[in-house]
Amino acid sequence: MESKKITIRKPEGKLGVLLVGLGAVATTFVAGVEAAKKGVRKPIGSLTQMGHIRLGKRTDNKTPLVREFIPLAGLNDLVYGAWDLFPDNGYEAACKAGVIPRDLLDQIKTDLSGLEPMKAAYDKNYVRRLEGKHIKNVPNKMDLAEALIKDIEDFRTKNNCNRLVMIWCGSTEAYCTVQNEHKALKALEEGLKANSANIPPSMIYAYAAMKCGCGYANGAPNLTVDTPALLELAQEKNVPVSGKDFKTGQTLLKTIIAPGLRARYLGIAGWYSTNILGNRDGEVLDDPANFKTKEESKLSVLDTILQPHIYPELYGNLYHKVRINYYPPRGDNKEGWDNIDIVGWLGMPMQLKIDFLCRDSILAAPLVLDLVLFMDLAHRAGLRGIQEWLSFYYKSPQTKEGLYPEHNLFIQEMKLKNTLRYLMGEEQITHLGLDYYQS
Ligand SMILES: NC(=O)c1ccc[n+]([C@@H]2O[C@H](COP(=O)([O-])OP(=O)(O)OC[C@H]3O[C@@H](n4cnc5c(N)ncnc54)[C@H](O)[C@@H]3O)[C@@H](O)[C@H]2O)c1
User: Fold this and answer.
1) Confidence (pLDDT) at 364
2) Could you tell me if the CB of 361 is within 6 A of ligand 1?
3) Predicted confidence (pLDDT) at residue 1 exceeds the cutoff of 80
4) Does one domain contain both 137 and 77?
5) Cβ of residue 172 lying under 6 Å from some atom of ligand 1
6) pTM here?
7) Is 434 within a domain?
8) Does 335 lie in the same domain as 379?
């Protein structure tokens, strides 16, 4: 597509970041931003803060920082709001999550302890492992939506926000598929009034956000905005949506390794992935109904990278297995093992073993920052509905119906950067490069 400069509203004033869930990921995100503002830590892992973008030809030597190239909100303009099932403030929640070393946590204690969560919209059927204590008690789900709308508007006024973005950093909900209530906005609204069991809390938050003219990013594999009803609302309210499920840890590595094996036409007979994880997320995912939501998201990545329908001899019989085991001693320090059975020339078998000793929330937090800033950018640029260019951040990228998602991290990165170039009226980079040799 030809690049032409799009009108992007300036990022003036405060950007309100509405965090649904104030657990390990959300508190690690806030802590990292505040530590970066104080200069005590670098925002490592964040493309918006540390990434550069090449413009023009390789010989032009033009590679500005992304945040200097495109108008993004600054870290000093962010203000946070949150909801959680537990009343712990940001500092207490971060201590419980146990991700951030205590000495660092104490340097940002006042920033975190000022973040008091609002009472959550809760339905036990969707997260059975947690006992919500800090929750709204109202007669039905439409009342919950209205209470959330009031929270959002009060937050906007109190913090004098110019713009808002909502991002789901809450637990993974029990598995659900598109039901009649999700097929049209009118049906969703009737379902909310009728207190339908088919409407999970995440849909109520997303509904409330969009009603307030605020975009919604989905960090969990929950169905939420991947439904006709909420996409209809996004169009009506001109707001962006994106999802699903932050791409970190094992799946991040999978979408780095698999494109390489495919590029060399190496066959894969099996890919066995298992994780041990001991945080609250691991506890919730120990429930088979919640694990099913995560499993679908984690399993989906290989198909569109390997394309077994085009390469049946190489990937037609691939056995792909993913497990998550709740193991409390590890806390947030997840260990992800992969065993990949590869087939090469002469049909000879080989094996690849990966043992990723990662920190889940340390990998997720910079994605929250980038998504908040890019969702705000999309909104100011008038982009509404699904933001496929943000696939880079998700395990299970949301796409328009009928389009398969891109899982290859390198294609996703190119798509993201070309979108930034497109928005700024810069030439897109195809990596063809013949012109260097033709003149
Ligand atoms: N950390 C990662 O690498 C990673 C990667 C992909 C996705 N995720 C997803 O991000 C989410 C957050 O992960 P985490 O490690 O911070 O989990 P966490 O359990 O520490 O935090 C989630 C918080 O959400 C709260 N919550 C649950 N339902 C809620 C509701 N209806 N309203 C308000 N709050 C609610 C819980 O009380 C909890 O404090 C999870 O869904 C997880 O699967 C995390």
Assistant:
1) 98
2) yes
3) no
4) yes
5) yes
6) 0.97
7) no
8) no
The verdict on the CB of residue 81 being under 6 Å from ligand 1 is no
pLDDT tens-place string over residues 354-364: 999 999 999 99
User: What sign does the CA torsion over 236, 239, 242, 246 have?
Assistant: negative
Q: How far apart are the first and last CA of the chain?
A: 25
Give 191's contacts (C-beta < 8 A, 6+ positions apart).
141, 181, 198, 199
122 lines ligand 1 (CB under 6 A): yes
Which ligand 1 atom minimizes the distance to the CA of 202? 31
| Structural domain span for residue 328 | 249-357
* Number of domains composing the chain: 2
Between CA 2 and CA 422 the distance in angstroms is: 8
Q: Tell me, using a 6 A CB cutoff, whether residue 173 lines ligand 1.
A: no
Mutate to test the pocket of ligand 1, among 18, 276, 281, 361 (most ligand atoms within 8 A of CB): 281
The helix/strand/coil state of 5 is coil
In the predicted structure, residue 179 carries a pLDDT above the cut 80: yes
d(CA 438, CA 340): 43
Indicate the top mutation candidate among 28, 127, 171, 284 to test ligand 1's pocket, ranked by most ligand atoms within 8 A of CB: 171
| Residue pLDDT, tens place only, 125-173 | 999 889 888 999 999 999 999 999 999 999 999 999 999 999 999 999 9
Decide whether any atom of ligand 1 lies within 6 Å of the 202 Cβ: no
Ligand 1 mean position, distance from CA 380 (Å): 28
